[in-house]
Amino acid sequence: MSWNVFLSFVEEDLHMMEMWREQEREEDVNLEFCEYPVKKPYDSPDAEMIKDSIRDLLQKVSVTVVLIGRTTYTSKWVDWEIRASAEMGKGL
Predict the structure, then answer these.
(1) Minimal CA–CA distance to 52: which of 36, 67, 69, 64?
(2) 50-59: per-residue pLDDT in tens?
(3) Helix (H) or strand (E) holding 77
(4) Confidence label for 29 from pLDDT (cuts 50, 70 and 90)
(5) Angle between helices 47-59 and 76-87 (to 10 degrees)
(6) What's the predicted TM-score (pTM) here?
């Protein structure tokens, strides 16, 4: 069985995200990760388009993993991704 996983994180935690990505490359691990790195502010004019794109990705995954660093709690995008995942019935 293959797991499709959405990774939610803030930019300062890219190093943690890369450690997860390395697991995907292991032969005996059936993981497939996706993420949507957001560089624009949560209240930007492009926010709805970004949310639609993230929703499309969330439709394809079974679980969302939130990489938690020192400033993750300040991210409105991470908060929204968690809420959207829960609303779609995805595991967290």
Answers:
(1) 36
(2) 999 999 999 9
(3) helix 76-87
(4) confident
(5) 40
(6) 0.87
